[in-house]
Design goal:
alpha+beta, about 120 residues, 3 helices, six-stranded antiparallel β-sheet, Thiol Ester Dehydrase, Chain A
Amino acid sequence: MTKNEFTRRKSPFTELVGIKTVGQGKQFQLKVQKKHTNSHGYAHGGAIFSLADRAFACAVNTPGKISVAMEMKINYLSPVAIGDVLVARAKVIKEGKRTTVCLIEIKRKSELVAMVLATSFNVKH
């Protein structure tokens, strides 16, 4: 399986949330709707986290490698409103035999609204 094949692979949860693949499979987008909000009317942290998780999964599952999340830590930096379009992009920081560490940035236009540090366990390498 090529990296692009994994990115195109359907994820029922990703589709349910409304996450789209953009930028030739290197970025992931979520347009915040009312269904994504918390009781304060801002984007629910789980919606933002789900966007980051999709970018992470596509970054660490490369040809011949199967990886699953082992740990993820998120910092929410700004509230996100209905109508905002969020874009997530993951960058591999360190790839080892058993683990891979990534940094995921979630932006609204050029503004950083959340950052995630994530580690995957490489089931098959």
